[in-house]
Amino acid sequence: MIRIGNLTKQFGSNPVLRGIDLQVGAGEFVVILGQSGAGKSTLLRCINRLAQADSGTLEVAGIDALGCSDPRLLRQQVAMIFQHHNVVPRLSVLKNVLTGRLGAVSTLASVLQLFRRDDIELGMQCLARVELDHKAHQRTDSLSGGQMQRVGIARALAQRPKVILADEPVASLDPKTARLVLQYLRDASRELGITVLCNLHQVDYAREFGDRIVGLAHGSLVYDGSAEGLSEADLQRIYPGQQATCTAPLPAMSYCAELRG
Ligand SMILES: Nc1ncnc2c1ncn2[C@@H]1O[C@H](COP(=O)(O)OP(=O)(O)OP(=O)(O)O)[C@@H](O)[C@H]1O
Ligand SMILES: [Mg+2]
């Protein structure tokens, strides 16, 4: 589903991705770990062409993602979930989910926000997957942060993507809610055969939810293997000079990264 070959990306003189090789199959749930600045977000952004890689090969859902002249074709297949869920607060929960369909409906329909009955049914099914169908007609700003993130997942699913890229989807959630959100995402991935690449800062969530873990350090891939196979020595390579075995200190790093902007 995703084939990445010798992918490189530099910002000015700062090499951020240094020859990444990675292949991910259909329906795999891959967690990407790495300390702040390791290149996790840049990798996801290169995959859906929010950032342009400098060299290498990148095939996503059968599309040559580096060479394709219209990134919208790519983005129809690839949904994103962000840390801050990016929902529109004043819209209803269902309308937020249906914005996931905008890439698939005509320009006029999208301007007028006209959705077909089958899109609405799909939106309701996606909300049912995250157990929020009963909130469909409420304003989204009446929901909690965890519920908003579930709306973000439903919106991504409504896009009927082959791939979901989730960039720290649970960084601002308490542990119980974070687990619930990751569970919805993993279940949807398994049941619908969607490939998920999910950036996380929490090693224990990675172990619990990842079919596979990829570790980045300073833009290089330093681990690619099973969750069970991830050893302390691997963690030392992924987090050089840090203790990285429990949930608590690592989310704090991501909050710091956020504060630094
Ligand atoms: N648009 C940009 N312009 C210049 N440098 C950038 C840009 N985006 C990212 N970088 C740099 O690329 C490096 C990797 O950043 P990236 O956001 O991919 O890291 P990350 O692993 O996602 O970190 P975090 O865990 O803090 O989110 C950092 O040194 C960052 O400063
Ligand atoms: Mg990031």
Largest sheet: number of strands, sense, barrel closure: 6 strands, mixed
Class from secondary-structure proportions: alpha/beta
Question: Which CATH class applies here?
Answer: Alpha Beta
Q: What string, H for helix and E for strand, traces the elements in order?
A: EEEHEEHEHHHHEHEHEEHH
Organism: Pseudomonas kulmbachensis
Pfam family, one: ABC_tran
GO molecular function: ATP binding
Membrane topology: Peripheral membrane protein
Can you put this structure into words, describing what you see?
This protein has 261 residues and is an alpha/beta fold. The protein has a single domain, classed as P-loop containing nucleotide triphosphate hydrolases (Rossmann fold, 3-Layer(aba) Sandwich). Helix content is 38%, strand content 23%. The chain has 10 helices and 10 strands. The strands form 2 sheets. A 6-stranded mixed beta sheet has the order 6-7-8-3-9-10, sandwiched between helices. Strands 2-1-4-5 form a 4-stranded antiparallel beta sheet, with helices on one face. A hairpin with a 2-residue loop joins strand 9 and strand 10. The longest helix is centred in the C-terminal third of the chain and has 18 residues. The two termini are 32 Å apart. Adenosine-5'-triphosphate binds next to strand 2, helix 1 and helix 10.
